[in-house]
Design goal:
With about 100 residues, the protein is α+β, with helices and mostly antiparallel strands. It has five helices and three strands. It has helices spanning about 5-15, 15-25, 30-40, 45-55, 75-95; strands at about 30, 60-65, 65-70. Strands 1-3-2 form a three-stranded antiparallel beta sheet. The protein is elongated and about 65 Å long. About 15% of the residues are buried.
């Protein structure tokens, strides 16, 4: 069953730029300068999106001198993926059993 936390996380990841950031961070830990280069986003726009991802618990930060590096938290993505896997399995069983509610 999807929870409100899952729904909030889906809203966070539904934004195309945030999804691009998550995809990039899945491949390597990057600082905001790298993310600006890769996405073409402005510093302000990128910072706002990174704040949303941090607050949602999707990324962790690591200060390094005057830069901040961002790292994806894979367990958050894996948890959401697990919810979808369970949902797909439920749908498969429902389809196999032709489960449907009768109309009144």
């Amino acid at each position: 069953m999807m929870t409100s936390v899952d729904t909030d996380l889906l809203r966070v990841l539904a934004d195309p730029l945030r999804l691009r950031i998550v995809t990039l961070l899945a491949e390597e830990t990057l600082c905001s300068t790298h993310l600006i280069e890769e996405t073409g986003a402005t510093q302000t726009n990128l910072s706002n999106h990174l704040r949303v991802l941090r607050e949602a618990g999707v990324v962790d930060t690591e200060p390094c001198g005057r830069f901040t590096y961002y790292r994806l938290r894979p367990e958050v993505i894996a948890s959401l993926a697990g919810r979808f896997t369970a949902l797909a399995e439920t749908a498969r069983v429902t389809a196999e059993n032709d489960t449907k509610r009768s109309c009144p």
